[in-house]
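User: I'm writing a short report section on ligand binding and want a predicted complex to refer to. Could you take this sequence and manganese (II) ion and write out the structure as tokens? A short remark afterwards would be nice.
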Amino acid sequence: MSVPEPQWRQAVHQLTSAERVALACHVMPDGDALGSMLALGAALRSQGTQVVASWGGSPFEVPASYAYLPFLDLLVRPEDFPEVPELLVTLDCAHPRRLGSLQGRLATAGCTVVMDHHAAGTRYGDLNLVDEQAAATVVLVSELLDRLEVPLTAELAIPLYTGLVTDTGSFRHRSTTPAVHQLAARLLSTGIRHDLITRSIYDTAPFGRVQLLGRVCARARLEPEAVGGLGLVWTVVDLEDLASTGLRLADVEGVVDVLRSTQEAEVAAVLKASPDDGGWVVSTRSRDAVDVGAVCSALGGGGHFSAAGFSATGEPAHVLARLRDALADAAHVSPRARTA
Ligand code: MN
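Assistant: Sure. The structure tokens for the complex follow:
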């Protein structure tokens, strides 16, 4: 459902009357979380508003592949985030728990605006600019910037394009509508170097990443009987993999996108060891039949139909067993699975 007009009008009123605005995106931010937050932050700052932006999780590091983003000076560490925000805007954050250590600000903020495009359970704000049909949160931010009459500069187009290209999987996912390409055309017409953006996101990494891909792909397992017979392919990235290749957790984001090409598997999953808490960050992708967003929500995480994740603790075998059970249940209930 698209955003009702009164919600837009009230959000514009709140954003133009607030002196200070605090922005927060989901923990372990991706291109859409960072891009939507930085574009909105820079736009508001250009209109004279005091803006800070953050996310409530460690590590508080911008992944190296997003280091080209402008407006990173808007970022403050979560411990420096205002205790009582005058106006709080959350971006690309489907559930309060995805705010991590900043979740408590929902209770103290004078007003909360939620900008998001995830399906289900996302309307926890006083105002909700939520559209499950939108391909990315940057689509909503770009409409908001138009309504705020902020001129679209090349510098603003860079974070907006970043969110659009990453959330559509480089314009490959089903969410890639004519409107997505129209927005992309508008962003490109500002003169941005889209080739440099996508090269940084997808095609630039330390040599250690190639070595790590070799290691973790060599130990990948295919389970044709899993997911109700639709197949599961999975692998593990452990602490030793990270230590021996000198990579950080944020650097191994793309492993699941290598596994997902496995044609014998409906679902791909990667368990990544988290050096901070000794737990696991699990990324999942589905081909067409199983809603991994619902599966990961049931396991305490979230995401979209074909791309989602969750965090877990315990032995990897135990984490995998829980995932296998949830995927089998999902394959059982999904009408698209039955007809696949
Ligand atoms: Mn998104």
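A remark for your report: The chain has two domains: 5-202, 207-339. The first helix runs from residue 5 to 17.
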